[in-house]
């Protein structure tokens, strides 16, 4: 493929950027009374207002041309078609198969994978009904009331985010906990008030070899057996979600209580697979299936909606406009819903593990920026923390505001106030306040500069009617496909994560050195050696 920066659309965007970079949103809105209705798109239950972006019709045309020249649509079809687009691991990328309806056909290596997907979903549903209905009993005959998911990365962030997001729909008689950190404090605090006789551990790990998860799983086993005193109890209190049956068996979990998935499901794309078991236990199989339907709605929208109406395509391209032409380094994701408290943290892995890459598919070092830094907090808390910098700082930070028209907790006037803040923030960020306006308010001229808001800060507003399982599915899929679009344009592999390997390997080696009494290996640098020595001295003091 031609180098990205040599493509006609890229060059045209560069020239166009030079011409429009100082155009203000005030002028764009003043010049087009319909902009706020025109620059919107809708699909899969989500409404996107992208009018408060620093784009003209020409910008949008050029960005769509860039998508064409980089073959985004063909790459999308290759993913949906089960081609092995994860070339460094020789794998298909088929999270879209996890939410394909029964009866659909998606072929990998000559085999339709959809029936297997539904087979696992049906087994999960059966198990979930047993636990929720109190029929799945612990070793001493008590029903399971506490569920602890042990996993990390994609085997934790998806379940915990979606559980929090859908708490309104959950069975409040069940206590859900999520343990991820290898820091013993995590498991100690999450189990300290639980009754082992009524506790079920779900060990969620695609590989079943991840250090953090296996360490926590072993500690959970010890915690359980301290009370139950019989290895046979493990079978009633542990289930596994993994692709690695051999390791599951080695741990002592009956593979009859293992829920599988496949190598074509990436960790950060696995919430729809058996990795979502804890969520299904909490909200029930029907709500879980509704969520899958929402994902599928967005898959279909992404696959079939025309480019100028295609939400993930538009969001991906707008991100590229700021990342590659304005030099913006980060994107703030600001959900105005307390249930979405973990959404930005979830997106950090989805986006940054996917697109934090420095070489193209063919291994050449890129000469352009790739994935942005993703961060954020639920509104309105962030307003009283970091919004100052977004409004008046020196950095350009495009923001995604996410809100719902109906609340799940009607408690007037809370929801109107919450949504008033969404609209106020995006308005203030776009239009700001000029020196003239400040002076006209009678502010002391010496202080006036401090009160000026330049505005021209770009935002997307995503509105949905209500936070339902289905809406949540659409929303997550929107971001999955946004990430896909950007990776496709940048011509990188969004589906491997070699960047986390080096640290893992070194940690394993150093863990051995921390255990031994001998001198740290002199192969480390002098800083690492001194730190290891000091830690060991102080630890054992
Ligand atoms: O962070 C690296 C990673 O491989 C993620 O991609 C994955 O979600 C996580 O570790 C956990 O891996 P596993 O599910 O195999 O324990």
From TrEMBL:
Its EC number is 5.3.1.9. The active site is at residues 353, 384, 504. Residues 517-526 have a biased composition (Basic and acidic residues). Pathway: Carbohydrate degradation; glycolysis; D-glyceraldehyde 3-phosphate and glycerone phosphate from D-glucose: step 2/4; Carbohydrate biosynthesis; gluconeogenesis. It comes from the Bacteria. HAMAP family: G6P_isomerase (MF_00473). Catalyzes the reversible isomerization of glucose-6-phosphate to fructose-6-phosphate. Belongs to the GPI family. This is Glucose-6-phosphate isomerase. It comes from Deinococcus antarcticus.
């Amino acid at each position: 493929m031609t180098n990205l920066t040599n493509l006609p659309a890229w060059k045209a965007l560069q020239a166009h950027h030079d011409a429009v970079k100082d155009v203000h949103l005030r002028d764009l809105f003043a010049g087009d009374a319909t902009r706020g209705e025109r620059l919107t798109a809708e699909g899969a239950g989500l409404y996107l207002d992208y009018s408060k972006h620093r784009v003209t019709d020409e910008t949008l045309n050029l960005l769509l041309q860039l998508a064409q020249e980089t073959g985004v649509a063909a790459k999308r079809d290759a993913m949906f078609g089960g081609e092995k687009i994860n070339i460094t691991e020789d794998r298909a990328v088929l999270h879209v198969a996890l939410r394909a309806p029964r009866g659909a056909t998606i072929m990998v290596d000559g085999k339709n994978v959809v029936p297997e997907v539904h087979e696992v979903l049906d087994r999960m549903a059966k198990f979930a009904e047993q636990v929720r209905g109190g029929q799945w009993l612990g070793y001493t005959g008590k029903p399971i009331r506490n569920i602890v998911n042990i996993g990390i990365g994609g085997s934790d962030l998806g379940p915990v985010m979606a559980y929090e997001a859908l708490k309104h729909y959950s069975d409040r008689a069940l206590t859900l906990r999520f343990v991820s950190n290898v820091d013993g404090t995590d498991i100690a605090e999450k189990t300290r008030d639980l009754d082992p006789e009524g506790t079920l551990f779900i060990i969620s790990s695609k590989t079943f070899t991840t250090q953090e998860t296996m360490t926590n799983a072993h500690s959970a086993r010890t915690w359980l057996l301290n009370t139950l005193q019989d290895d046979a109890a493990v079978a009633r209190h542990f289930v596994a979600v993994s692709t690695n049956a051999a390791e599951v068996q080695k741990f002592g979990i009956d593979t009859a209580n293992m829920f599988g998935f496949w190598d074509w499901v990436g960790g950060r794309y696995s919430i729809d697979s058996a990795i979502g078991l804890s969520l299904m236990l909490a909200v029930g199989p029907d709500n879980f299936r509704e969520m899958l339907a929402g994902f599928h709605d967005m898959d279909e929208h992404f696959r079939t909606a025309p480019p100028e109406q295609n939400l993930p395509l538009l969001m991906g391209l707008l991100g590229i406009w700021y990342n590659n032409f304005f030099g913006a380094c980060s994107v703030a994701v600001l959900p105005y819903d307390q249930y979405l408290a973990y959404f930005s943290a979830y997106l950090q892995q989805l986006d940054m593990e996917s697109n934090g890459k420095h070489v193209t598919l063919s291994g050449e070092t890129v000469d352009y920026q790739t994935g942005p830094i993703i961060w954020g907090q639920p509104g309105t808390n962030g307003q009283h923390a970091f919004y100052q910098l977004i409004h008046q700082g020196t950095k350009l930070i495009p923001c995604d505001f996410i809100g719902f028209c109906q609340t799940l907790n009607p408690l007037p006037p809370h929801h109107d106030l919450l949504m008033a803040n969404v609209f106020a923030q995006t308005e203030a960020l776009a239009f700001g306040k000029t020196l003239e306006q400040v002076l006209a308010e009678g502010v002391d001229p010496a202080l006036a500069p401090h009160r000026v808001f330049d505005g021209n800060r770009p935002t997307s507003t995503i509105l949905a009617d209500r936070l339902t399982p289905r809406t949540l599915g659409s929303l997550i899929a929107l971001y999955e496909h946004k990430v896909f679009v950007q990776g496709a344009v940048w011509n990188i592999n969004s589906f491997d994560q070699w960047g986390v390997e080096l640290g893992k390997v070194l940690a394993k080696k150093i863990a051995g050195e921390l255990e031994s009494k001998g001198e740290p290996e002199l192969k480390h640098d002098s800083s690492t050696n001194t730190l290891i020595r000091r830690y060991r001295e102080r630890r054992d003091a």
